[in-house]
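User: My instructor asked us to take a sequence, write out its structure as C-alpha coordinates, and then describe one feature of it. I'm not sure where to start. Here is the sequence I was given:
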Amino acid sequence: MSLYAALYSGTSGLAANSSALGIISDNITNVNTIGYKAADAEFMTLVTESSTYGSYSPGGVQARARSLIGAQGLLQTSTSATDLAIDGNGFFVVRPDMNSKDVYFTRAGSFRPDDRGYLQNTAGMYLMGWPLDSNGKYMDNGDVNVLSPINIAALTGTAEATTNAKIRANLQSSQEIYAGTPAYDPANPGQLASGAIEPHFSKTIKVYDSQGSAHNITMSFLKTGVNEWSVEIHGTPGEITGGPLVSSGTIAFNEDGSLDMGNSTAALFDPINFNWTNGAAASPITFNFGSDGQADGLTQFDSTSTMISSAIDGAVFGNVTGVSVGKDGVVTALFDNGLTRAVYKLPIATFQNPEGLMSVQGNAYARTDYSGNFELVSSGTGGAGQISPKTLEASTVDLAEEFTKLITTQRAYSASARIITTADEMLTELNQLKR
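Assistant: Let's start with the prediction itself. The C-alpha coordinates for your sequence are:
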Protein backbone atom coordinates (compact mmCIF):
# COMPACT_ATOMS: atom_id res chain seq x y z
CA MET A 1 0.00 0.00 0.00
CA SER A 2 1.37 3.41 -0.97
CA LEU A 3 0.61 5.02 2.43
CA TYR A 4 2.74 2.49 4.24
CA ALA A 5 5.41 2.81 1.57
CA ALA A 6 5.34 6.57 2.09
CA LEU A 7 6.03 6.01 5.78
CA TYR A 8 9.03 3.83 4.95
CA SER A 9 10.19 6.37 2.38
CA GLY A 10 10.03 9.15 4.96
CA THR A 11 11.90 6.99 7.44
CA SER A 12 14.65 6.32 4.91
CA GLY A 13 14.84 10.07 4.33
CA LEU A 14 15.36 10.63 8.06
CA ALA A 15 18.10 7.97 8.17
CA ALA A 16 19.84 9.25 5.04
CA ASN A 17 19.85 12.85 6.15
CA SER A 18 21.01 11.80 9.62
CA SER A 19 23.98 10.10 7.98
CA ALA A 20 24.61 13.20 5.88
CA LEU A 21 24.50 15.33 9.03
CA GLY A 22 27.12 13.07 10.61
CA ILE A 23 29.41 13.49 7.59
CA ILE A 24 28.96 17.27 7.62
CA SER A 25 29.58 17.37 11.37
CA ASP A 26 32.85 15.47 10.94
CA ASN A 27 33.95 17.87 8.22
CA ILE A 28 33.15 20.96 10.28
CA THR A 29 34.84 19.69 13.44
CA ASN A 30 37.99 18.79 11.44
CA VAL A 31 38.27 22.12 9.67
CA ASN A 32 41.63 22.72 11.44
CA THR A 33 42.90 19.12 11.33
CA ILE A 34 46.20 18.89 9.43
CA GLY A 35 45.91 16.72 6.32
CA TYR A 36 42.20 15.99 6.83
CA LYS A 37 40.26 15.08 3.68
CA ALA A 38 36.65 16.20 3.59
CA ALA A 39 33.99 13.59 2.85
CA ASP A 40 30.78 14.13 0.92
CA ALA A 41 27.35 12.53 1.30
CA GLU A 42 26.01 11.06 -1.92
CA PHE A 43 22.33 10.07 -2.10
CA MET A 44 20.97 7.15 -4.11
CA THR A 45 17.41 6.02 -4.69
CA LEU A 46 15.90 2.83 -3.27
CA VAL A 47 13.45 1.04 -5.58
CA THR A 48 11.06 -1.59 -4.22
CA GLU A 49 9.61 -2.53 -7.62
CA SER A 50 9.47 -1.22 -11.12
CA SER A 51 6.74 1.34 -11.68
CA THR A 52 3.93 0.38 -14.01
CA TYR A 53 1.47 2.53 -15.84
CA GLY A 54 -0.98 4.02 -13.38
CA SER A 55 0.79 2.85 -10.18
CA TYR A 56 3.92 3.74 -8.24
CA SER A 57 5.49 2.30 -5.09
CA PRO A 58 7.98 4.61 -3.34
CA GLY A 59 11.25 3.12 -2.14
CA GLY A 60 13.07 5.95 -0.41
CA VAL A 61 16.66 7.13 -0.33
CA GLN A 62 20.02 6.04 1.01
CA ALA A 63 23.13 8.10 1.80
CA ARG A 64 26.66 6.92 1.34
CA ALA A 65 29.87 8.68 2.28
CA ARG A 66 32.26 9.45 -0.53
CA SER A 67 35.81 10.12 0.60
CA LEU A 68 37.67 12.81 -1.30
CA ILE A 69 41.09 11.46 -0.31
CA GLY A 70 42.74 12.46 -3.56
CA ALA A 71 42.00 16.16 -3.08
CA GLN A 72 44.94 18.28 -1.91
CA GLY A 73 44.64 20.91 0.76
CA LEU A 74 46.36 24.28 0.86
CA LEU A 75 50.05 24.06 1.74
CA GLN A 76 50.91 26.35 4.62
CA THR A 77 54.39 27.42 5.73
CA SER A 78 55.61 26.21 9.12
CA THR A 79 58.64 27.06 11.27
CA SER A 80 59.36 23.47 12.32
CA ALA A 81 61.92 21.49 10.31
CA THR A 82 59.96 18.27 10.88
CA ASP A 83 56.64 19.62 9.59
CA LEU A 84 56.21 17.95 6.21
CA ALA A 85 53.71 17.97 3.37
CA ILE A 86 53.45 16.30 -0.02
CA ASP A 87 52.88 18.59 -2.98
CA GLY A 88 51.08 16.18 -5.29
CA ASN A 89 50.09 12.54 -5.08
CA GLY A 90 51.09 10.07 -2.42
CA PHE A 91 51.18 9.43 1.31
CA PHE A 92 53.68 9.19 4.14
CA VAL A 93 54.22 5.64 5.43
CA VAL A 94 53.54 5.31 9.17
CA ARG A 95 52.96 2.69 11.86
CA PRO A 96 50.58 3.16 14.82
CA ASP A 97 53.27 2.06 17.33
CA MET A 98 56.80 0.70 17.40
CA ASN A 99 55.83 -2.97 17.74
CA SER A 100 52.88 -2.98 15.34
CA LYS A 101 52.94 -4.90 12.08
CA ASP A 102 50.20 -2.67 10.66
CA VAL A 103 51.22 -0.14 8.04
CA TYR A 104 49.11 2.96 7.45
CA PHE A 105 49.30 5.94 5.14
CA THR A 106 48.72 9.59 5.98
CA ARG A 107 49.01 13.14 4.73
CA ALA A 108 49.16 14.54 8.29
CA GLY A 109 52.81 15.59 8.39
CA SER A 110 53.06 17.42 11.72
CA PHE A 111 55.88 15.21 13.03
CA ARG A 112 57.67 15.75 16.34
CA PRO A 113 60.26 13.62 18.21
CA ASP A 114 58.92 11.64 21.14
CA ASP A 115 60.81 11.01 24.40
CA ARG A 116 63.05 8.48 22.61
CA GLY A 117 63.71 10.60 19.53
CA TYR A 118 61.31 8.86 17.13
CA LEU A 119 59.33 11.13 14.81
CA GLN A 120 55.56 10.84 15.26
CA ASN A 121 52.66 13.07 14.28
CA THR A 122 49.91 14.45 16.50
CA ALA A 123 47.93 11.21 16.08
CA GLY A 124 50.87 9.17 17.42
CA MET A 125 51.76 7.64 14.04
CA TYR A 126 55.48 6.89 13.62
CA LEU A 127 57.14 8.04 10.40
CA MET A 128 58.97 5.32 8.45
CA GLY A 129 61.92 5.68 6.08
CA TRP A 130 64.74 3.90 4.29
CA PRO A 131 67.93 3.86 6.44
CA LEU A 132 70.94 5.23 4.54
CA ASP A 133 74.41 3.75 4.78
CA SER A 134 77.61 5.79 4.90
CA ASN A 135 77.51 6.14 1.10
CA GLY A 136 73.91 7.38 1.05
CA LYS A 137 72.61 4.11 -0.39
CA TYR A 138 69.48 2.26 0.73
CA MET A 139 67.61 -0.94 -0.03
CA ASP A 140 64.44 -0.38 -2.06
CA ASN A 141 62.78 -3.67 -2.91
CA GLY A 142 59.21 -2.41 -2.50
CA ASP A 143 58.86 -4.17 0.87
CA VAL A 144 57.72 -2.04 3.81
CA ASN A 145 59.60 -4.36 6.17
CA VAL A 146 62.90 -2.78 5.14
CA LEU A 147 61.65 0.58 6.41
CA SER A 148 62.67 1.74 9.88
CA PRO A 149 61.11 4.23 12.29
CA ILE A 150 63.03 7.48 11.96
CA ASN A 151 65.06 8.12 15.10
CA ILE A 152 67.59 10.93 15.02
CA ALA A 153 68.60 10.85 18.70
CA ALA A 154 70.06 7.35 18.37
CA LEU A 155 72.93 8.77 16.29
CA THR A 156 74.43 10.72 19.19
CA GLY A 157 78.08 9.81 19.72
CA THR A 158 78.37 7.57 16.67
CA ALA A 159 81.44 7.39 14.46
CA GLU A 160 82.09 6.66 10.80
CA ALA A 161 85.43 5.26 9.67
CA THR A 162 87.28 6.85 6.76
CA THR A 163 87.04 4.84 3.55
CA ASN A 164 87.92 7.36 0.83
CA ALA A 165 90.48 10.14 0.50
CA LYS A 166 90.42 12.22 -2.68
CA ILE A 167 93.67 14.13 -3.14
CA ARG A 168 94.43 17.04 -5.47
CA ALA A 169 98.06 18.17 -5.35
CA ASN A 170 100.79 19.44 -7.65
CA LEU A 171 104.36 18.13 -7.65
CA GLN A 172 106.85 20.63 -9.06
CA SER A 173 108.14 19.41 -12.44
CA SER A 174 111.43 21.35 -12.17
CA GLN A 175 112.36 19.61 -8.93
CA GLU A 176 115.76 17.97 -9.34
CA ILE A 177 115.89 14.18 -9.25
CA TYR A 178 117.14 12.95 -5.90
CA ALA A 179 120.76 11.86 -6.03
CA GLY A 180 121.75 12.27 -2.41
CA THR A 181 123.08 9.97 0.27
CA PRO A 182 121.78 7.54 1.27
CA ALA A 183 120.38 6.46 -2.08
CA TYR A 184 116.69 5.79 -2.17
CA ASP A 185 115.89 2.09 -2.65
CA PRO A 186 112.33 1.48 -3.96
CA ALA A 187 112.75 -2.24 -3.23
CA ASN A 188 113.37 -1.42 0.45
CA PRO A 189 110.95 1.44 1.21
CA GLY A 190 110.57 3.22 4.52
CA GLN A 191 113.37 5.78 4.25
CA LEU A 192 110.88 8.63 3.80
CA ALA A 193 108.65 7.37 6.61
CA SER A 194 111.56 7.01 9.04
CA GLY A 195 113.09 10.39 8.15
CA ALA A 196 116.33 8.87 6.83
CA ILE A 197 115.66 10.79 3.62
CA GLU A 198 113.86 14.09 3.59
CA PRO A 199 111.02 14.02 1.02
CA HIS A 200 110.70 16.73 -1.61
CA PHE A 201 107.06 17.16 -0.62
CA SER A 202 104.85 15.71 2.09
CA LYS A 203 101.33 16.31 3.29
CA THR A 204 99.49 15.00 6.35
CA ILE A 205 95.76 14.32 6.38
CA LYS A 206 93.43 13.29 9.22
CA VAL A 207 91.45 10.06 9.03
CA TYR A 208 89.08 8.33 11.49
CA ASP A 209 88.83 4.73 12.63
CA SER A 210 85.64 2.83 13.49
CA GLN A 211 85.78 4.09 17.09
CA GLY A 212 85.97 7.72 16.02
CA SER A 213 89.64 8.17 16.92
CA ALA A 214 91.55 10.54 14.64
CA HIS A 215 94.87 9.51 13.07
CA ASN A 216 97.40 11.47 11.06
CA ILE A 217 98.40 9.86 7.77
CA THR A 218 101.31 11.34 5.80
CA MET A 219 101.98 11.08 2.07
CA SER A 220 105.67 11.68 1.31
CA PHE A 221 106.89 12.24 -2.27
CA LEU A 222 110.47 12.05 -3.61
CA LYS A 223 111.36 12.68 -7.26
CA THR A 224 113.39 9.67 -8.38
CA GLY A 225 113.20 9.88 -12.18
CA VAL A 226 112.01 11.86 -15.17
CA ASN A 227 108.26 12.29 -14.70
CA GLU A 228 108.47 9.80 -11.83
CA TRP A 229 108.05 10.19 -8.06
CA SER A 230 108.37 7.65 -5.28
CA VAL A 231 105.63 7.88 -2.64
CA GLU A 232 105.32 6.43 0.86
CA ILE A 233 102.08 6.45 2.85
CA HIS A 234 102.78 6.21 6.57
CA GLY A 235 101.26 6.99 9.93
CA THR A 236 102.31 7.91 13.45
CA PRO A 237 104.66 5.34 15.05
CA GLY A 238 102.79 3.09 17.48
CA GLU A 239 99.34 3.71 15.97
CA ILE A 240 99.56 1.20 13.10
CA THR A 241 100.44 -2.48 13.45
CA GLY A 242 103.72 -3.11 11.64
CA GLY A 243 103.96 0.61 10.88
CA PRO A 244 104.55 3.36 10.45
CA LEU A 245 104.92 2.54 6.72
CA VAL A 246 101.67 1.27 5.24
CA SER A 247 102.13 1.42 1.46
CA SER A 248 104.65 2.62 -1.09
CA GLY A 249 105.20 2.75 -4.83
CA THR A 250 105.76 4.97 -7.83
CA ILE A 251 103.59 7.73 -9.29
CA ALA A 252 104.28 8.50 -12.97
CA PHE A 253 103.19 11.46 -15.07
CA ASN A 254 102.69 12.06 -18.78
CA GLU A 255 104.61 14.69 -20.72
CA ASP A 256 101.70 17.13 -20.32
CA GLY A 257 101.82 16.81 -16.52
CA SER A 258 98.75 14.60 -16.19
CA LEU A 259 98.66 11.36 -14.22
CA ASP A 260 100.04 8.25 -15.96
CA MET A 261 98.33 5.36 -14.15
CA GLY A 262 99.70 2.77 -16.58
CA ASN A 263 103.28 3.31 -15.37
CA SER A 264 102.32 3.92 -11.74
CA THR A 265 102.16 1.30 -8.99
CA ALA A 266 98.66 -0.17 -9.21
CA ALA A 267 98.52 -1.00 -5.49
CA LEU A 268 98.49 2.72 -4.65
CA PHE A 269 95.08 3.03 -6.28
CA ASP A 270 93.57 0.01 -4.54
CA PRO A 271 92.13 0.07 -0.99
CA ILE A 272 95.00 0.22 1.52
CA ASN A 273 94.38 -1.58 4.80
CA PHE A 274 95.21 0.26 8.03
CA ASN A 275 95.44 -2.02 11.09
CA TRP A 276 95.11 0.19 14.16
CA THR A 277 96.73 -0.71 17.47
CA ASN A 278 93.95 0.83 19.61
CA GLY A 279 91.51 -2.05 19.06
CA ALA A 280 89.47 -0.35 16.33
CA ALA A 281 88.49 -2.37 13.27
CA ALA A 282 90.89 -2.38 10.34
CA SER A 283 90.17 0.46 7.92
CA PRO A 284 90.48 -0.08 4.14
CA ILE A 285 91.07 3.41 2.73
CA THR A 286 91.11 4.17 -1.00
CA PHE A 287 93.35 7.06 -2.03
CA ASN A 288 91.92 8.71 -5.12
CA PHE A 289 94.89 10.36 -6.84
CA GLY A 290 92.92 11.25 -9.96
CA SER A 291 92.00 9.83 -13.36
CA ASP A 292 94.38 8.46 -15.96
CA GLY A 293 95.49 11.16 -18.36
CA GLN A 294 93.59 13.85 -16.48
CA ALA A 295 94.63 16.76 -14.29
CA ASP A 296 91.90 16.18 -11.70
CA GLY A 297 94.15 14.70 -8.97
CA LEU A 298 97.92 14.57 -8.79
CA THR A 299 99.65 16.73 -11.41
CA GLN A 300 103.22 17.67 -12.32
CA PHE A 301 103.49 21.28 -13.42
CA ASP A 302 106.28 23.76 -12.92
CA SER A 303 104.82 25.47 -9.89
CA THR A 304 105.47 24.97 -6.20
CA SER A 305 104.55 21.58 -4.85
CA THR A 306 101.39 22.05 -2.85
CA MET A 307 98.15 20.42 -1.76
CA ILE A 308 95.31 21.96 -3.76
CA SER A 309 92.39 20.26 -2.03
CA SER A 310 91.36 17.09 -0.22
CA ALA A 311 88.03 15.40 0.42
CA ILE A 312 88.17 12.81 3.18
CA ASP A 313 85.12 11.07 4.56
CA GLY A 314 84.68 9.66 8.06
CA ALA A 315 83.96 11.57 11.25
CA VAL A 316 82.99 11.30 14.87
CA PHE A 317 79.53 12.70 15.45
CA GLY A 318 78.62 14.66 18.56
CA ASN A 319 75.19 15.45 19.96
CA VAL A 320 72.28 15.92 17.59
CA THR A 321 71.19 19.55 17.60
CA GLY A 322 68.65 19.48 14.80
CA VAL A 323 67.32 17.81 11.71
CA SER A 324 66.49 18.93 8.20
CA VAL A 325 64.51 17.31 5.41
CA GLY A 326 65.16 18.05 1.75
CA LYS A 327 62.72 18.09 -1.13
CA ASP A 328 64.19 14.76 -2.21
CA GLY A 329 63.05 13.27 1.10
CA VAL A 330 66.54 12.87 2.58
CA VAL A 331 66.58 13.36 6.36
CA THR A 332 69.84 14.95 7.54
CA ALA A 333 71.00 15.07 11.16
CA LEU A 334 72.83 18.20 12.37
CA PHE A 335 75.47 17.75 15.09
CA ASP A 336 76.92 20.16 17.63
CA ASN A 337 80.42 19.86 16.12
CA GLY A 338 79.15 21.29 12.84
CA LEU A 339 78.98 17.99 10.96
CA THR A 340 75.95 16.72 9.09
CA ARG A 341 74.92 13.23 8.08
CA ALA A 342 72.21 11.94 5.77
CA VAL A 343 70.49 9.20 7.77
CA TYR A 344 67.14 8.37 6.16
CA LYS A 345 65.20 8.82 2.94
CA LEU A 346 61.43 9.16 3.08
CA PRO A 347 59.41 6.99 0.69
CA ILE A 348 56.10 8.13 -0.77
CA ALA A 349 53.37 5.51 -1.16
CA THR A 350 51.19 5.84 -4.27
CA PHE A 351 47.93 4.02 -5.09
CA GLN A 352 46.04 3.42 -8.31
CA ASN A 353 42.80 4.40 -6.54
CA PRO A 354 43.43 6.46 -3.40
CA GLU A 355 39.68 7.04 -3.05
CA GLY A 356 39.37 3.34 -2.22
CA LEU A 357 41.46 3.59 0.94
CA MET A 358 39.81 2.89 4.29
CA SER A 359 39.94 5.54 7.01
CA VAL A 360 41.45 4.47 10.33
CA GLN A 361 41.88 6.19 13.68
CA GLY A 362 44.34 9.06 13.65
CA ASN A 363 43.67 10.69 10.27
CA ALA A 364 45.31 7.81 8.42
CA TYR A 365 44.29 5.23 5.84
CA ALA A 366 44.67 1.50 5.29
CA ARG A 367 44.95 -0.40 2.03
CA THR A 368 41.87 -2.17 0.67
CA ASP A 369 41.05 -4.24 -2.40
CA TYR A 370 39.44 -1.13 -3.92
CA SER A 371 42.57 0.99 -3.47
CA GLY A 372 44.88 -1.64 -4.96
CA ASN A 373 48.46 -2.28 -3.94
CA PHE A 374 50.81 0.56 -3.16
CA GLU A 375 54.20 1.41 -4.60
CA LEU A 376 57.04 2.94 -2.57
CA VAL A 377 58.81 5.57 -4.66
CA SER A 378 61.15 8.47 -4.10
CA SER A 379 59.97 12.05 -3.89
CA GLY A 380 59.00 13.45 -7.28
CA THR A 381 59.28 10.13 -9.15
CA GLY A 382 56.86 7.44 -10.33
CA GLY A 383 53.84 9.75 -10.27
CA ALA A 384 54.47 10.75 -6.64
CA GLY A 385 54.42 14.33 -5.47
CA GLN A 386 57.38 16.16 -4.02
CA ILE A 387 58.05 16.44 -0.31
CA SER A 388 57.71 20.00 0.90
CA PRO A 389 59.71 20.62 4.12
CA LYS A 390 58.62 23.16 6.75
CA THR A 391 55.11 22.95 5.32
CA LEU A 392 51.78 21.54 6.49
CA GLU A 393 48.77 20.57 4.38
CA ALA A 394 45.59 22.21 5.59
CA SER A 395 42.21 20.49 5.79
CA THR A 396 40.25 20.39 2.54
CA VAL A 397 37.05 21.43 4.34
CA ASP A 398 35.29 24.50 2.91
CA LEU A 399 33.44 25.87 5.93
CA ALA A 400 31.00 28.02 3.93
CA GLU A 401 30.08 25.03 1.75
CA GLU A 402 29.60 22.81 4.80
CA PHE A 403 27.27 25.33 6.46
CA THR A 404 25.23 25.48 3.27
CA LYS A 405 24.99 21.69 3.23
CA LEU A 406 24.03 21.80 6.91
CA ILE A 407 21.04 24.04 6.15
CA THR A 408 19.85 21.97 3.20
CA THR A 409 20.25 18.75 5.17
CA GLN A 410 18.25 20.18 8.05
CA ARG A 411 15.46 21.20 5.68
CA ALA A 412 15.51 17.78 4.00
CA TYR A 413 15.26 16.09 7.38
CA SER A 414 12.29 18.26 8.34
CA ALA A 415 10.63 17.49 5.01
CA SER A 416 11.11 13.74 5.55
CA ALA A 417 9.55 14.09 8.99
CA ARG A 418 6.61 15.92 7.38
CA ILE A 419 6.13 12.93 5.05
CA ILE A 420 5.70 10.68 8.08
CA THR A 421 3.22 12.99 9.85
CA THR A 422 1.20 13.50 6.65
CA ALA A 423 1.05 9.74 5.96
CA ASP A 424 0.01 9.20 9.58
CA GLU A 425 -2.85 11.73 9.24
CA MET A 426 -4.03 10.03 6.05
CA LEU A 427 -3.97 6.62 7.73
CA THR A 428 -5.98 8.09 10.60
CA GLU A 429 -8.59 9.34 8.13
CA LEU A 430 -8.66 5.90 6.56
CA ASN A 431 -9.24 4.23 9.92
CA GLN A 432 -12.13 6.62 10.64
CA LEU A 433 -14.05 5.74 7.48
CA LYS A 434 -15.98 2.98 9.34
CA ARG A 435 -17.39 5.39 11.91
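For the description part of your assignment, you could build on this observation: The longest helix spans residues 399-431. Try explaining in your own words what that tells you about the chain.
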